[in-house]
Amino acid sequence: MYVDAAAGAILSSAQAITVTAVSTGVYDTAGLGVGQAVTNRFGTATSFGEDVGGGGPLVSGPQLVVTVPTAFTAGGAATLRVQLQAAVDVNNTGLPVTWDTIVQTDDIAVALLGVSSPQRPLVSFTVPDRYQGQNFPRFYRLNYIVATGPMLTGAVNAMLLTGIDDVPFYPPNY
Question: Which end of the chain is more exposed for a tag (fewer CB within 10 A), N or C?
């Protein structure tokens, strides 16, 4: 698997989550960063974006993987929900305007938020294709929703992975 740290594919790195928060990193499909207008485009398009969920003819779509390097604790029955959000670059300003949730987890109970690894992540799913008729998003981020909180401790790592090279597991005597 490949993680393009230079392009911002790391959305959270040991990010402490005690209350609802967004990821510290934002993935920009232009590779320029938030606040930077796209200068190398052709035509008269007023927005720039890409459907990263499409993958390619020989490549699956990117995977979002969230792991827990520091276990979560709470004084009560807190839960965590992870949302992948996308935003269009309106009028090529380089600034996201409206963040739309494109996929999310169910509420995950604090008892299930122990330390995890990339081999057994807390959350892992393929970034979905955009719906027909939607604009192409330029920016992607995560939104972490803490309910019935706050959490006392806990942190997450999150990244968009491409070039997945998972090894299939087969039952014995296959």
Answer: C
Q: What is the pLDDT of residues 36-50, one digit of tens each?
A: 777 665 555 555 555
Q: How far is it, in rounded angstroms, from Cα 112 to Cα 141?
A: 23
Please report, for residues 13, 92, 107, 117, the alpha-carbon distance to residue 50 in angstroms, rounded to integers and kept in the order given.
24, 13, 29, 29
The half-sphere exposure of 123 on its side-chain side, counting CA atoms within 13 A, is 24
Q: Which domains does the chain have, with CATH numbers?
A: 10-31+47-161 (2.60.120.1110)
Q: Are strands 139-147 and 79-87 parallel, antiparallel or unpaired?
A: antiparallel
How far is 166 from 39, CA to CA, in rounded Å? 37
Query: Which structure tokens are listed for 111?
Result: 């008892």
Q: pTM score, two decimals?
A: 0.82
> Contact at 8 Å (CB) between 22 and 143?
yes
Contact of 157 with 12, CB cutoff 8 Å? yes
Cis peptide before 150 (omega within 30 of 0): yes
- Cα separation, 131 vs 53, in Å, equals 10
Quick one: which of 124, 101, 122 has its CA closest to 112? 122
Looking at every residue in the chain, the average pLDDT score rounds to 81
**Do residues 20 and 139 make contact, with C-beta atoms less than 8 angstroms apart?**
no
Task: Residue 99: name the closest of 71, 137, 125 by CA.
Answer: 137
